[in-house]
Amino acid sequence: KAVFAALDRACKPGALLCSNTSTLDIDEIAAATSRADAVCGTHFFSPAHVMPLLENVRGAKASGRTLATVMALGKKLRKKTVLVGNCFGFVGNRCLEGYVREANYLLEEGCLPVQVDAPLRAFGMAMGPLQMSDLAGNDIGYSIRRDLGLGAHAAAEGAERYYGALADKLVERGRLGQKAKKGWYDYSAGRAPVDDAEVAALIEEHSAAAGIARRSIGAEEVLDRCLLPLVNEGFKCVEEGVAQRESDVDMVYLFGYGWPRYLGGPLYWARHIRAGGLPRVVADLHSYGKVHSGIAHW
Description:
298 residues; alpha/beta; four-stranded mixed beta sheet; 14 helices; 4 strands; 52% helix
């Protein structure tokens, strides 16, 4: 807020003030300025010179001129530009949250990192959620969880089952991801992920300390538990008007998150390609919700 208030004072009238954040409230940022109508989100995806997606985020007071300008900017930059509403994570990272949470729960319950990532790569994703976290930097999620006041204490206070305990331990051991040459995987030999016995031991110790009996988890369950929360949240985004149409959610995932193009995007896949279509999606969400009660994304 202080940065945008200073920019508001320094920039000429009519200049747009845009934020690349995906976890801060665009309307709160706009409220710190005298030009809320000229403030919006322009969420580029890392690395910005490679990734084609741009999420433009409309604040509550953003003018038509502001939105038209940032959409034209995206076109000029040759980005695949999608206009989305303002909420935590916007469309892409909001839908991603359940996907990443389930990856962490699967580790606690019986999987090792490769057993989570491999089925998703076989499905067609560019990389699995744990390799993706290593690429982005595990410390980013750690910082977001701290900013939100999340932590192991949350479970003791009766809140939703905390999903970040293992990831927190990983960061606290200095395993930040590729940039540290170690994260969920070992990268000492290069950028290719290599299984790490230290991580396997950490996961197994964590499960034992938490009183979780580890079990064998098949690829189908891994896919369901990671992808169905993502799909469910995508439909919620459309229902709430955060995304204007189903194809906008699909565009975000095709061009920002490595969703396989031949599967059309998560909502297209759920509606038209996955066996059983939407009726089966709903039935499976209810089924997993009964087993994993108390977890909001089910």
